[in-house]
């Protein structure tokens, strides 16, 4: 019976050129990913196909060629720069007699190496279990046998069914623990709202320089390195912005093309800091020739976590790697800052970033007096739930005059949820 082979540190890379993909960039990025996982690349095998093969993803001839190269190089693992089905993965392993890991598996391995906090380790384990659970059926056929022996004979639970049950139980346990983490983060977020503290979230493609910028702005000592996914665990610090006051800035995990959906789900509690931010700082490596593709990849993840409507300020980082580029602020036709050019590594242009933050955040708070009729007291409760009421006057007819103050993103979200609030605004009941 064929068994899975143990993994190693020497690998063959496999990439299939497909018509719909931006292949060269994806392959170069995959090489960096593999290097970030501290794996030695023995050789890179490429092939072209109009569509993936159902059996091996690659063609059968190319699969046979790879099997020969495995023996020639004495490779321990084959890394495929695509998402494989469990069947394709199993077929390749059987043919090559070598462990096969797809792109998702490589990213999960890097995440497992980088997770430092208890929460981060739980999130990575959850993603790994969700990934493995889909590969039990084809991955371990020898586990289909039922338990035997004295006291265990007869119809009963197979070893495979036992493993499935144990994985489901572990996933539920981790989800329960992460739910507690999410509740704690929500309590902290509500405390910041109560203290009138806006949150700024750093987002961007992995290795764009988010943590370096975070350290430069906050004098923190978050781990930084010229590698993909150096940051997994979110870090929050408080900084002062002129004419705005204290704000909280959050450093978050970087994004990447084809980020596995189960990773996005596993890091839901972490990404909540991004989803609930008043302003996003989208950090971009200005020296990267693929920056526009990277921006698109980040925007896709922001859309997936429902953070695409949050106001965003672009931060063009690493201008020290560009010739004759000086720190500056780009503005739209209304004079609002939309882009800041700086170098976080050299701490050049940080004053311009703070200036842009001051101008953007000053416009991110909704304030005013709102008259709410007695029959819409439910709206009053919503504002109290958001801790947005600064002062209240109860009128003789039972109506309410509320002085409100809340982040603009919360205001816009409430307007979408409550049609009655839009009616009040249209009736000119909000005095700014």
Helices and strands in order, then pairings?
Blueprint lengths: L9 E8 L5 H14 L3 E9 L11 H14 L3 E4 L5 H11 L2 E4 H12 L3 H16 L2 H4 L19 H36 L3 E7 L5 H9 L16 E7 L3 E7 L9 H6 L1 H8 L3 E7 L5 H14 L7 E6 L10 E4 L5 E5 L8 H12 L3 E8 L4 H9 L3 E6 L5 E8 H10 L1 H8 L3 E2 L1
Parallel strand pairs: 1-2, 1-3, 3-4, 5-7, 5-8, 8-9, 9-11
Antiparallel strand pairs: 6-7, 10-11, 12-14, 12-15, 13-14
Helix pairs in contact: 1-4, 4-5, 5-7, 7-10, 14-15
GO molecular function, one term: ribosome binding
Family: Belongs to the TRAFAC class OBG-HflX-like GTPase superfamily. HflX GTPase family.
Function: GTPase that associates with the 50S ribosomal subunit and may have a role during protein synthesis or ribosome biogenesis.
Write a structural description.
The chain folds into three domains: about 10-115, Rossmann fold; about 195-360, P-loop containing nucleotide triphosphate hydrolases (Rossmann fold), CATH 3.40.50.300; about 365-425, 2-Layer Sandwich (Alpha-Beta Plaits), CATH 3.30.70. Residues about 1-10 and about 140-155 have low confidence and may be disordered. With about 425 residues, it is of the alpha/beta class. About 40% of the residues lie in helices and about 20% in strands. The chain has helices spanning about 25-35, 60-75, 85-95, 105-115, 120-135, 135-140, 160-195, 210-220, 260-265, 270-275, 290-305, 350-360, 375-385, 410-415, 420-425, and strands spanning about 10-15, 40-50, 75-80, 100, 200-205, 235-240, 245-250, 280-285, 310-315, 330, 335-340, 365-370, 390-395, 400-405, 430. One of its GO terms (molecular function) is GTP binding. Monomer. Associates with the 50S ribosomal subunit. It comes from Orbus hercynius. Pfam families: GTP-bdg_M, GTP-bdg_N, MMR_HSR1.
């Amino acid at each position: 019976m064929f068994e899975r082979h143990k993994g190693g540190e020497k690998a063959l890379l496999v990439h299939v050129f497909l018509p719909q993909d931006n292949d060269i960039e994806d392959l170069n990025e995959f090489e960096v990913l593999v290097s970030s996982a501290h794996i030695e690349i023995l050789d890179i095998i490429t092939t072209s196909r109009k569509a993936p093969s159902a059996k091996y993803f690659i063609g059968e001839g190319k699969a046979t060629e790879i099997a020969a190269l495995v023996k020639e190089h004495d490779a321990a693992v084959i890394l495929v720069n695509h998402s494989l089905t469990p069947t394709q993965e199993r077929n390749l392993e059987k043919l090559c007699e070598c462990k096969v890991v797809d792109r998702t598996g490589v990213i999960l391995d890097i995440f497992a190496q980088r997770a430092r906090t208890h929460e981060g380790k739980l999130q990575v384990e959850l993603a790994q279990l969700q990934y493995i659970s889909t590969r039990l059926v084809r991955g371990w056929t020898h586990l289909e046998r039922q338990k035997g022996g004295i006291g265990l004979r007869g119809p009963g639970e197979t070893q495979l069914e036992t493993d499935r049950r144990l994985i489901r139980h572990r996933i539920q346990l981790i989800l329960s623990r992460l739910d507690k983490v999410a509740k704690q983060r929500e309590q902290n977020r509500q405390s910041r709202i109560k203290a009138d503290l806006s949150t700024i979230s750093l987002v961007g493609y992995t290795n764009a320089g988010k943590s370096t910028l975070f350290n430069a702005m906050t004098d923190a000592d978050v781990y930084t390195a010229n590698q993909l996914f150096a940051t997994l665990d979110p870090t929050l610090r408080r900084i002062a912005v002129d004419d705005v006051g204290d704000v909280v800035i959050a450093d978050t995990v970087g994004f990447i093309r084809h980020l596995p959906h189960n990773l996005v789900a596993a890091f839901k509690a972490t990404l909540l800091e991004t989803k609930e931010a008043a302003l996003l700082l989208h950090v971009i490596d200005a020296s990267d020739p693929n920056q526009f593709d990277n921006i698109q990849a980040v925007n896709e993840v922001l859309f997936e976590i429902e953070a695409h409507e949050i106001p965003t300020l672009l931060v063009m980082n690493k201008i020290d790697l560009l010739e004759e580029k000086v720190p500056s602020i780009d503005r739209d036709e209304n004079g609002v800052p939309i882009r800041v050019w700086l170098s976080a590594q050299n701490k050049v242009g940080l004053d311009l970033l703070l200036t842009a933050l001051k101008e953007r955040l000053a416009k991110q708070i909704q304030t005013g007096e709102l008259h709410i009729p007695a029959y819409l007291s439910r709206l009053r409760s919503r504002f109290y739930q958001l801790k947005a009421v600064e002062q209240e006057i109860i009128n003789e007819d039972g109506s309410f005059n509320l002085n409100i103050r809340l982040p603009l993103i919360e205001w816009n979200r409430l307007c979408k949820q409550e049609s009655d609030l839009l009616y009040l605004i249209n009736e000119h009941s909000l005095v700014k």
